[in-house]
Amino acid sequence: MSQTDDSTSDEQGTMPLTESVAIVTGASSGIGAATATALAAEGATVVLAARRVDKLEALADRIETDGGDALVVQTDVTDEDDIDSLVQTVTDEYERIDILVNNAGVMLLEPLERADRSNFRQMVEVNLIGLMNLTHAVVPIMREQGEGHVVNVSSVAGRMTNAFSSGYNATKFGVNGFTDAVRKEVSADGVRTTIIEPGAVDTELPTHIPDDQVLEQFSEMDLPTLEADDIARAITYATTQPQHVDINEMLIRPTGQTSL
Ligand SMILES: NC(=O)c1ccc[n+]([C@@H]2O[C@H](COP(=O)([O-])OP(=O)(O)OC[C@H]3O[C@@H](n4cnc5c(N)ncnc54)[C@H](OP(=O)(O)O)[C@@H]3O)[C@@H](O)[C@H]2O)c1
């Protein structure tokens, strides 16, 4: 849907997403699943991308039962062919892409000297290169449309470092730098960019921490946490603003989080 005409905003000044097409990566769990659900509830057709296709199909069923529209495209964001095929599938089916939520991510925290180099590589390929490549594939379509919105899920770890987080920090600082530089290239053509920086959110993300001691410390910290829905609401807020409003960055901590 064209969002150029801000006069279609509702009483709260927000824009409906009816007829918008939104791709959400990492939609099989956590923040991605919550975001896809929230955008569908606002009327967007959501394209669910991740590797675990059974979880994507179950989510698509739930969205459709609630009256929404969803398309499942199994995607490994580290695979360039998968990225191109995702974008081709969406443009063949809907002829437009209004919102891209680059949310897929892994957090493989380890002390530097015990770190497995393959974990560095995986974090960089999923959290950063996958996000860069998908943005690269989608921006020309949005520019041609004269509008579009790229939402990149970073982290509080994109702004502040922590011990045992060097690789993860490197990827999320990278996401912030990449996104803000892209903003300077595309904003004049109507394409908006938002960096989302959650603090601790209750999802399966930390369960993949490979280092037993770091995992134990993480569990013992007993941090206050946000729910995935809290981040989905922030993304919905950013993407339903009128076209002339470009929310570039949102840092969202659970109340009481002081460690980062
Ligand atoms: N939870 C937090 O405290 C927190 C805080 C700040 C930022 N974040 C960020 O929020 C984002 C979502 O994380 P989450 O907390 O919702 O964790 P999550 O539940 O573990 O979700 C991660 C998602 O990334 C997907 N993914 C991983 N590797 C992938 C690949 N190669 N290709 C495609 N998808 C891939 C996973 O799907 P498949 O395994 O099915 O592929 C999954 O859907 C991440 O970028 C994370 O860094 C989370």
TrEMBL record:
GO terms for molecular function: oxidoreductase activity, acting on the CH-OH group of donors, NAD or NADP as acceptor. Residues 20-204 form the Ketoreductase domain. Keywords: Oxidoreductase. The keyword Oxidoreductase applies. Transmembrane segments: none annotated. The keyword Oxidoreductase applies. InterPro entries: KR_dom, NAD(P)-bd_dom_sf, Sc_DH/Rdtase_CS, SDR_fam. It holds the Pfam family adh_short. Belongs to the short-chain dehydrogenases/reductases (SDR) family. This is NADP-dependent 3-hydroxy acid dehydrogenase YdfG.
